[in-house]
Design a protein that fits this description.
Elements (H helix, E strand, L loop, with lengths): L7 H6 L1 E5 L10 E2 L2 E2 L7 H4 L4 H10 L7 H10 L4 E7 L16 H4 L6 H12 L2 E6 L22 H18 L6 E4 L7 H14 L4 E2 L11 E2 L14 E6 L16 H13 L3 E6 L9 H17 L7 E2 L10 E6 L2 E6 L5 E6 L3 E6 L9 E5 L4 E7 L10 E7 L6 E6 L1
Parallel strand pairs: 1-4, 1-10, 4-5, 5-6, 6-7, 8-9, 9-10
Antiparallel strand pairs: 2-3, 11-12, 12-13, 13-18, 14-17, 14-19, 15-18, 16-17
Helix pairs in contact: 4-6, 4-10, 7-8, 9-10
The chain binds ligand H79.
Length: about 425
């Protein structure tokens, strides 16, 4: 069933920053000489670190280089419109001040500050929506949490819900002003009545707060694809792809396998052209910094967004066309068709159902050269274009067509 999150800001945003930050940034993929082959935030499980040992990280967690404004400015410079940060991941450690559970950044670390307060303020200042990730079922620290080391049959999830999960959600939804959305995760063991209670709880505190697809049991306000999964077909309704910039969510010092700005822009455009939002992750260090290499990549994306944002924000999926043509994608707005040229194929044609007033390179305003021939049999027009040898932007050259009708119709295209 098509989901409708009912929040215009989210439908228009198209691009957000995911932040995975927690105690796992301290071992950063390595513990007692052993490397985890898996993602950084799973180190406790994958290297079987006992709970008491893992909790020792809290005593030395002191991210003195943390600067909320710098993070938010980076997201804003990259053209991201919302930030989703791990308030509590599966390790059970709360990255915010929590009266419900002392295992939190203010009460259990030498840092003693609440980074969420500072981030909430910075987001308000820069006009980004502030959102939380919250692991509602898995909690490896809590005796009644999923994944804690004892048989699930002995656990009382109701008790966990009442004592930790719901009270912490109350804190998140009352201590930091308006929250854009709560990003739940891994609902596999969440019974329908539990998903429903959590959902109702969020809405009772902030009716406009969106609940992500991973609340489970089909209750979310929008659909979340699998981690790093790009769907091949446009889904109806609202949906989002959560994805990594390298191969981990939580910081891992060995992982410098960053995707290039070009790859990331292509992913953004591919997701947007099928109607989705792209939630791109960064994993800050235990000192509180977003790795510089990663920040540089985001700033380069930002330079593209500055000039071409019109073809991203507020756009909708284009009519279906052959997706195996990797060199082109389309986004639309009423009366506008944006053609994203990801590679220079030399010559292209497009069968287009509407007529248009004007076609130009979005970045430079220069006219886009083409010839148009009416195809009376099909009622379409055949557009043929010889592309110049150098396109204005090798990351993605956007051509804007100003259509004579609101609805954009085109049928097929190919290189000649
Ligand atoms: O927060 C990030 C992941 O930690 C979380 N979702 C994203 C956004 C996530 N938790 N569980 N899963 C995703 C699915 C579990 C996959 C597993 Fe594994 C396969 C668990 C163990 C093997 C993923 C891959 C985690 C470790 C290796």
């Amino acid at each position: 069933m098509a989901k409708d999150c009912r929040q215009q800001w989210w439908k228009e945003a198209k691009f957000g920053m995911f932040i995975h930050w927690g105690l796992y940034a301290i071992p950063a993929g390595e513990y007692k000489g052993r490397q985890t082959k898996s993602v950084g935030e799973w180190i406790m499980k994958h290297l079987s670190i006992p709970v008491e040992e893992y909790a020792e990280f809290a005593k030395v967690f002191n991210p003195v280089k943390f600067n909320a404004e710098e993070w938010v400015r980076l997201a804003s410079d990259a053209g991201m419109k919302y930030i989703v940060i791990t308030a509590k991941h599966h390790d059970g450690f709360a990255m915010f001040k929590s009266a419900a559970d002392p295992y939190n950044i203010v009460d259990a670390t030498p840092f003693g500050r609440d980074p969420m307060k500072e981030l909430a303020e910075a987001c308000r200042k820069y006009g980004l929506k502030f959102c939380f990730y919250y692991s509602q079922v898995q909690d490896w620290y809590d005796k009644n949490g999923c994944g804690y080391g004892r048989p699930d049959e002995e656990k009382d999830f109701e008790e966990y819900l009442e004592r930790k999960c719901l009270p912490q959600l109350t804190e998140l939804l009352t201590q930091y002003g308006d929250i854009g959305l709560i990003w739940f995760d891994t609902p596999q063991k969440c019974k329908p009545e539990h998903s429903q209670r959590i959902y109702d709880h969020v809405k009772s505190l902030q009716p406009n707060c969106i609940v992500s697809g991973r609340i489970g049991n089909q209750l979310g306000d929008y659909m979340s694809t699998g981690d790093n999964m790009l769907p091949l077909l446009p889904y109806p309704g609202d949906w989002e792809v959560p994805a990594t910039l390298n191969d981990t969510w939580g910081f891992k010092k060995s992982d410098t396998n960053w995707k290039s700005p070009k790859q990331l822009i292509e992913l953004l455009v591919k997701i947007n052209s099928r109607g989705g939002n792209y939630l791109l992750n960064v994993g800050p260090t235990a000192e509180g910094e977003i790795p510089e290499a990663c920040a540089d990549i985001l700033r380069e994306i930002g330079r593209f967004m500055q000039k071409n944002g019109e073809s991203i924000y507020g756009t909708k999926a284009a009519p279906a066309y052959p997706y195996d043509m990797d060199w082109v994608r389309f986004t639309t707005k009423p009366g506008k068709l944006y053609m994203h040229l990801l590679r220079n194929v030399g010559k292209l044609y497009l069968l287009i159902g509407n007529t248009f007033r004007r076609a130009y390179y979005l970045e430079t305003g220069e006219p886009f050269e083409y010839t148009l021939t009416a195809q009376p049999a099909s009622g379409t027009h055949r557009l043929v274009a010889e592309l110049p040898e150098t396109l204005p932007n090798e990351l993605d050259t956007v051509v804007c067509f100003e259509m004579n009708e609101e609805d954009v119709r085109f049928e097929t295209l190919d290189t000649l």
